[in-house]
């Protein structure tokens, strides 16, 4: 029977990176794997990045899995022939056990072996959470993170490559103490370390006993916190007047957007940029205003034309995100010498969560 593995966790925790790494690991030992990405609207960097890795992917856009379970079930059905389906819910969603995992266990998406819920945790974000750093995010956003970790069967501390032993031990003991019912794992999705151990633990866990945590969720707090986040998805065609260095363009736009969020006094949940030239791709990510803008994948070449996608989630008014995006991209076009065509921007606050099921 097809195994469904849901990989949750807050914005920028490394869900897509971990999904790609897990899919590669599962395929290496002879499994077929399909991935499902999810967002409130269209033009997803994650889907393009997964496709770039030659993995089967389908996306659910326009709503999160929880609020459109029939849409989720439909995507699952298109992948029913796979040995594994890996699904990444929207990073600001919680209450997944009662809205996705239990309905799936009850057969609402057809026959499936529903594997335990894994929730990825980002070290920097966890430190802010531990220090209750409301200069970064509000109490409400930390409420979402708390609920995500509370309901997890596996709390997966990711990006351990960025931590020294002492720091890692501190974070792991905090997680063990605060969430004794979750099993804490350590991985570096980027380096592929710990991923096999995590998968083995998930696969050998008791399916019947997992996804069973009962958890109180105050939807008003959850919904208000989600709505603090401005959401912006955009796409555009880039046409260089001569040629332009694709990676330099991405870095400059990433820095400019990060600066704009910082100037507005907001925090970045996740800023993702993707530039596809048809011959290669450049991908950029930034998970906080005090964090670096990083090129996860480089083009390494001059570009004449390219298709750009911007996904930005930040605690800033979406109208301001739209204004800054328009201004920064135009200014960059002038300074680097490219035209921006067919720019489409969708900017909004996520709607109040209204799950299809709550079991
Ligand atoms: N150093 C390090 N960086 C990582 C690791 N895993 C992911 N990242 C980086 O963290 C950033 C976010 O990773 P994603 O996989 O896109 O995170 P996500 O949880 O899918 O983000 P959203 O879909 O926006 O919620 C990217 O720059 C990744 O390269 C890791 O193990 N170590
Ligand atoms: Mg992702």
Automatic annotation (TrEMBL):
GO cellular component: cytoplasm
Superkingdom to which the source organism belongs: Bacteria
Record Gene3D superfamilies: P-loop containing nucleotide triphosphate hydrolases
Name of one Pfam family that matches: cobW
Alphabetized InterPro entries for the sequence: CobW/HypB/UreG_nucleotide-bd, P-loop_NTPase, Zinc-reg_GTPase_activator
Domain CobW/HypB/UreG nucleotide-binding: 5-171
Protein name per the record: Cobalamin synthesis protein P47K
Native organism: Eubacterium callanderi
Source species taxonomy: Bacteria, Bacillati, Bacillota, Clostridia, Eubacteriales
